[in-house]
Specification:
70% helix
Length: 88
């Protein structure tokens, strides 16, 4: 049940992050879910820097930190993707 919950929270966090970040993100639902899951771990790590909780702890601010982590990951991927354009 924990993995299913992680995927659902990841999908919701990824969708919210994609809605908040301006610009076009070409990714489907699976990549949005992966974005949210990675963002959850990034957000959990950021949250663990300020509290005594572990990165994988489930707490009330988990969705907020998941969205913030997803935004950070989405911005980093967007910046990395800008330099890899192929000119014909």
């Amino acid at each position: 049940m924990g993995i299913l919950w992680l995927l659902v929270v990841g999908l919701v966090a990824g969708l919210i992050a994609r809605a908040l970040v301006p610009g076009r993100q070409n990714m489907g639902l699976v990549m949005t879910m992966v974005l949210g899951v990675v963002g959850s771990f990034v957000g959990g790590f950021i949250g663990s820097l300020f509290t005594h909780r572990a990165v994988t702890d489930l707490h009330a601010t988990g969705l907020i930190m998941s969205v913030l982590g997803s935004i950070v990951v989405l911005l980093l991927v967007g910046m990395a993707g800008r330099g890899r354009r192929i000119h014909a």
